Amino acid sequence: MTSPQIDPHWPHLVAEFSRALSVEGRKQLGLFSIEGFRLIERALATSTPLAHVLISQSQYADPQPRFRKLLDQLTAISQTVSCIPDEAMEKLIENRTLGSILALAQIPPSPDLPLLLTQWAMQPQRRKILVLEDMVDPGNVGALVRTSHALHVDLFITLRGADPFHPRSARTSMGSIFRIPILRHESTENLLETLRDHQVFTIGATSEATTLLPNASFPSKPMALFIGHEGKGLSHPLRQGLDLSVAIPMASSIDSFSVNAATAVILYAMTYPPPLSEKS
For residue 52, is pLDDT > 70? Predict the structure, then answer.
């Protein structure tokens, strides 16, 4: 495969990708950066619109089958692929080995929460919402997007905290970011009020809770699980407004699970509750 020509507009394209690294830049562009074969494959699998695709000159010359197949997919949808110098790509990917290919993907529109909850009420079933309050690490946010996808969460909400469309969050989600509705929210009081108005059962994970997870009962209606800041946990105002707080039993020589492990354990219990006979 012959080496392609460098796109003469590559400095402008690289600057746009750099803009998408910030929250404000993503907001202005309506785009977020995705990196590597897996994320771009999964964006294409979900028909996520791509604004730009960048590839390094040396990657383009690499004949590996996976890359050729990805290029064929991009060509099939008439997606322009711009070639940039290897040095420029190396600065953008910072020695990560996911593949020297980047894209700017369209940030999906945020769901209208009251409307969505009204629609759910018309089709009663055990739906789940995961809410992260003030979580600061985008890697944790991305991991929890992936966990939510695996455990059939219907809506992912970040209550302040890190942006789910941060590049690190997108990478850590392993493509699940394209598979689950995501909403950013700013007000604890407003969110709790909206959930309460639509009869959503609210649950918080706190180590101080008197109800242990194996003894908890979950209703057959929409539920929202709240997970707090990595160090501080859930805020006091939020804890006061919840229907139920649960704690996970663990070894006495440790004070907590990782935030992703704790969330996965509780979501699993909410998704696959044991028969009542097993709890008695």
Answer: yes
pTM: 0.92
SS3 content of the chain, % helix, strand, coil (to 5): 40, 20, 40
- CATH number listed for the domain at residues 10-106: 3.30.1330.30
Nearest to 270 by CA among 228, 214, 231: 214
**Nearest C-alpha neighbor of 126 from the set 219, 204, 213:** 219
Q: What are the domain boundaries of the chain? A: 10-106, 113-279
Q: Tell me the mean pLDDT in the region 268-280.
A: 73
Torsions phi, psi for 108 (to 5 deg): -65, 150
CATH number of the structural domain 113-279 = 3.40.1280.10
Separation between Cα atoms, residue 234 and residue 226, nearest integer Å? 8
Model pLDDT for residues 71-105, shown as the tens digit of each residue? 999 999 999 999 999 999 999 999 898 888 999 99
